[in-house]
Write a structure and sequence with these properties.
It catalyses: 3-methyl-2-oxobutanoate + acetyl-CoA + H2O = (2S)-2-isopropylmalate + CoA + H(+). GO terms for molecular function: 2-isopropylmalate synthase activity. InterPro entries: 2-isopropylmalate_synth_dimer, AIPM/Hcit_synth_CS, Aldolase_TIM, LeuA-like_post-cat, LeuA_allosteric_dom_sf, LeuA_N_DRE-TIM, PYR_CT. The protein has 19 helices and 14 strands. The protein is α/β, with parallel strands linked by helices and about 600 residues long. It has three domains: about 300 residues, Alpha-Beta Barrel (TIM Barrel), CATH 3.20.20; about 110 residues, no CATH class; about 150 residues, Double Stranded RNA Binding Domain (2-Layer Sandwich). The strands form three sheets. Strands 1-8-7-6-5-4-3-2 form an eight-stranded parallel sheet. Helix 9 links the parallel strand 6 and strand 7. The radius of gyration is 35 Å and the shape is elongated. It starts with about 30 loop residues before the first strand and ends with a helix. The structure holds acetyl coenzyme *A (ACO) and 3-methyl-2-oxobutanoic acid. The site of acetyl coenzyme *A (ACO) has 17 residues, from helix 1, strand 4 and helix 5.
Length: about 600
């Protein structure tokens, strides 16, 4: 690279516009959109699309809500011409959709372009001509005067062939003209206005049917604020503004196409041309998805529906053979996804706080979420795509996965211990940690190796004076058993009312054990019973939770499943090692028993 870059490159001469108004404005409505995927996007592909592919793409664009679609450059190839005819003859164009066909300012190419559009209901004929000094001098060797004359000649020709035609079929079409002074950004603003005035006078637009001036950044050569000044200048100086639609067509050479297009709209432009996911020449056209979603997330309906963004990505990738970047705004595979611990923690807290707020309000709340500028669900993105785990993750994300798999919220201490283990695993194996891995690690470290091997055949719980034995009538526990199943609530109540005595018959791997114990609640009575089985430990921590999930097999009268989750932290008799145990069961006694035995088993083998 050069050190003295000024020897090769000049700074772009900015326009002096001291009274500019656009910085004070904001966007409160969508522009008129034109998709040029089937023209600018298509002409930039290694293998341009065939007729069938273009038809599928066209139908998707219509479905998304586009009302103006540049369908072809009919003079470019037979495929382009035939595709345009096919759309018209098969009546594939909805009545409210304008098709746009494009040609250079060459008479022999304009004629077939209009022939291709014959019979369509609404057609925009788009001609382009280079107006920038560089292009005029290097490519065309034409003066400004000669350039204006050519543009006017072509406009008159199009007028003769379309709205002034004597051919009754051609007269039935509603025709509009679009003229692109190319590259507008690099054209003197005075000359851009002058040539557009000449074209407008030749076409004679009306307030009902505007002429479109497509003031393109064919090649992006300056900052977005410079572009906005140019657009404001053009909008202020073009006459009969009410008969003119100012259209933007930004390429992304400096990576600023979205910003330039948004600022261009602030500066007065009415219409935007671009492609889905920024396909197009060189660095691409402006990305229509980003522009639409940028409006959406400011509370402005873009009029285009990206509610199933994955399907749009699949369609575009298949037909263009270009992958949408994994970090593309709104649409990338990783766009809403975080691997990072602190981000995951914030997002998890965000979702919890949102759920609490919505429960309180009884209606959907405004979106306010750390790290997620919009709700991925609005794009049809599932929450699973939000959090992914690797060695950079933390307890927020790992707790989220455990909740996905087991529908439990781990106590903080357990979450910290499990997170350490998962991170070590991810680092040692150099892998992404999937839901399956989380399930395996969690089960093998905290749950009974063979939970089906433990059965509660009978169980009676008695409190001091009152017998509180009640059957919960839940399937899945063999044998007759009578016991209260209100978890912590019962435990608290019982601890106030005196000693709880537990008598039960359990089977471990088919071998019957009669156990009994007493304590201040169900849990402590169970602990004392397990001690009598020969296990030696102390309880350091104990938590219990009820899960409710709808529509599964073990339903209560309200149609929801109730399962109890018990978390127990034990320390070995010699106070050497500790271990967590977790039990999840429809029966709260069994859940606690699973947790205690699982932790005790781990202590014995550690
Ligand atoms: C910025 C943009 O993307 S504009 C859209 C451009 N799209 C395309 O070019 C895709 C389709 N194009 C094609 O298929 C071909 O280029 C065609 C059919 C248009 C023309 O093909 P050819 O006649 O072989 O010409 P070629 O492709 O070399 O184009 C260059 C010629 O067109 C002229 N030309 C280029 N742009 C224009 C224009 N806007 N108006 C008039 N003439 C033009 C050039 O000056 C050159 O003329 P010359 O041969 O007298 O020197
Ligand atoms: C609108 C046309 C001329 C175009 O593709 C461009 O300027 O990039």
């Amino acid at each position: 690279m050069l050190v003295d870059t000024v020897k090769k490159y000049n700074a772009f001469p900015a326009l002096s516009l001291p009274d500019r108004k656009w910085p004070q404005k904001s966007l409160s409505k969508p522009p008129r959109w034109l998709s040029t995927d089937l023209r600018d996007g298509n002409q930039a592909l290694v293998q341009p699309m065939d007729g069938d592919a273009k038809l599928r793409y066209f139908q998707s664009l219509v479905q998304l809500g586009y009302k103006e679609i540049e369908v072809s450059y009919p003079s470019a190839s037979q495929t382009e011409f035939d595709f345009t005819r096919r759309l018209i003859t098969t009546k594939a164009i909805p009545d409210d959709v304008w098709i746009q066909v494009m040609a250079p300012c060459r008479e022999e190419l304009i004629r077939p372009t209009i022939e291709a559009a014959r019979g369509a209901k609404k057609v925009i004929v788009h001609i382009h001509l280079s107006t920038s000094a560089c292009f005029r001098e290097v490519v065309f060797n034409m003066t400004e005067r000669e350039t204006i004359e050519l543009a006017v000649r072509c406009t008159r020709l199009i007028r003769d062939l379309t709205k002034d035609s004597t051919d009754p079929e051609l007269r039935q079409t509603e025709w509009t003209l679009e003229f692109t002074p190319e590259n507008f950004q690099d054209t003197s603003p005075e000359f851009a206005v002058e040539i557009c005035e000449a074209v407008k006078a030749a076409w004679e637009p009306t307030e009902e049917n505007n002429i479109i001036f497509n003031v393109a950044a064919t090649v992006e050569v300056a900052m977005p604020n410079v572009f906005a000044d140019q657009i404001e200048y053009f909008c202020d100086h073009i006459s009969e503004r009410e008969k003119v639609c100012v259209s933007l067509h930004n390429h992304n050479d400096r990576g600023c196409a979205v910003a330039a297009t948004e600022m261009g709209q602030l500066a007065g432009a009415d219409r935007v041309e671009g492609c889905l996911f920024a396909n197009g020449e060189r660095t691409g056209n402006v990305d229509l998805v980003t522009l639409a979603m940028n409006l959406y997330t400011q509370g402005v309906d873009p009029g285009i529906d990206f509610g199933d963004i994955n399907q749009v990505v699949d369609m575009v990738e298949e037909l263009t053979k270009i992958a949408v970047h994994a970090r593309a705004p709104y649409a990338g595979k990783y766009t809403f996804c975080t691997f990072t611990g602190t981000h995951q923690d914030a997002i998890r807290k965000g979702y919890k706080s949102r759920a609490r707020l919505e429960e309180k309000l009884g209606v959907s709340a405004k979106w306010r979420m750390p790290y997620l500028p919009m709700d991925p669900a609005d794009l049809g993105r599932k929450h699973e795509a939000v959090i992914r785990l690797n060695s950079q993750s933390g307890k927020g994300g790992i707790g989220w996965f455990v909740n996905d798999v087991f529908e439990i919220d781990m106590p903080r201490d357990l979450e910290i211990a499990f997170t350490r283990m998962v991170k070590r695993y991810a680092e040692e194996k150099s892998v992404e940690v999937t839901h399956d891995i989380i399930e395996d690690l969690f089960r093998s470290h905290y749950m009974l190796r063979c939970p089906e091997g433990l059965q509660l055949l009978r169980c009676t719980l008695r409190t001091g004076k009152v017998c509180s034995a009640v059957s919960n009538g839940v399937n899945g526990v063999n044998g007759e058993h009578k016991h209260e199943t209100k978890g912590k609530a019962l435990a608290n109540k019982e601890s106030r009312s005196g000693t709880v005595r537990l008598q039960a018959v359990i089977a471990i791997k088919g071998i019957r054990h009669e156990i009994s114990g007493s304590g201040e609640d169900m849990f402590t009575s169970l602990v004392s019973a397990v001690h009598r089985l020969g296990f030696c430990f102390d309880v350091l921590d104990y938590h219990t939770q009820w899960q409710h999930s709808e529509g599964t097999e073990h339903e209560d009268s309200a149609g929801t499943t109730r399962r109890s989750a018990s978390f127990v932290k034990l320390v070995s008799g010699g106070k050497i090692s500790t271990s967590w145990g977790v039990g999840i069961h429809e029966d709260s006694v069994l859940a606690s028993l699973h947790a205690i035995l699982s932790a005790a088993e781990k202590l014995e083998t550690s």
